[in-house]
Amino acid sequence: MKILVLFGTRPEAIKMAPLVKALEREEDMEVVVCVTAQHREMLDQVLEVFQIKPQYDLNLMQHGQTLSQITSRALVGIESILKNEKPDLVLVHGDTTTTLSGALAAFYQQIPVGHVEAGLRSGNPYSPYPEEMNRMLASKLATVHFAATEGNVDNLIKEGINPQTIYKTGNTVIDALMSVVTPEYVFKHSILDKIDYNAKKVIVLTAHRRENQGTPMVNIFTAVREVVDANPDVEVVFPVHLNPKVRDLAQTLLSDHSRIHLIEPLEYEPFANLIGKSYLILTDSGGIQEEAPALGKPVVVLRTETERPEAVEAGTVVIAGVEKDAIVTETNRLLQDASHYKQMSGAVNPYGDGTACEKIIRSIYKLRV
């Protein structure tokens, strides 16, 4: 089988990289990797870590690009590749503009589509935006669906997807995580190397979502500062997103605090190990809600809803929302209530055991029968 694997952002690359490597080990499969480079620098970092050299690179990243512009450029670029390669299956991941464009381009060429990390739903088409609608549309275009959890499977069935085309596999992000995190890891970063992770309670903060920009992000940053002031043993590490709106606000509200470290975005390997050495996570990201629990780290979600309710139900994640007082309350409880922290950090991760890639490949072989 010739399989074209398509992705364009750092999160997609992290989750698809272990699958690419696993597919390459299969003698009966020919793997063609195409990246759109919807993200450029952050994508390249992951490709380097996992030693993946794409056969095709559309290099679509442009400053100030709109969703319509990148969708149209991706659709046209992917179409030409599909016509040239004529793959038996196109694998897309998750919920990005690349995902939607790739699934649609393959559909136009009548090529089967496999959707990795299928079935996530927040129930709000504008949160996360545009990801919620991207993944819903990708589900309608896909031929086979690789869902991480039973809840994801149920979501797809409720939307009329044929259950015989759905496979519960766990999430490939756990496969990726297990391949790079080690207790002996030593940071090459001057700030991260100096932190005493045993004596300090290190909070890793990530915040960048479109829907959080403006007042919600002011609330988040103000809450973080209040938490640090109230807990002398806490240090915060914030790899600041490249978005100028996020960077400007972080500089204004957080840069002058000695225990809040604003650093440049990290490559995947040091970031994964930073999570492993941290005490807890504050994030509006989706993927970290899956990664951190696998390492026993509680997550406070800085959003009003999540498309990953399994983590909330399992007790590894709590939704704080975007109001300052709620964020402060939930974070302080984890910092100051040892039994609550132990309960969350010891909860079972609902996203699998690191064998998702193996299960996906077994499912792909069934398509040939």
From TrEMBL:
Pfam families: Epimerase_2. One of its GO terms (molecular function) is UDP-N-acetylglucosamine 2-epimerase activity. Residues 21-364 form the UDP-N-acetylglucosamine 2-epimerase domain. Keywords: Isomerase. The keyword Transmembrane does not apply. Its EC number is 5.1.3.14. SUPFAM superfamilies: UDP-Glycosyltransferase/glycogen phosphorylase. NCBIfam families: wecB. Belongs to the UDP-N-acetylglucosamine 2-epimerase family. This is UDP-N-acetylglucosamine 2-epimerase (non-hydrolyzing). It comes from Fusibacter tunisiensis.
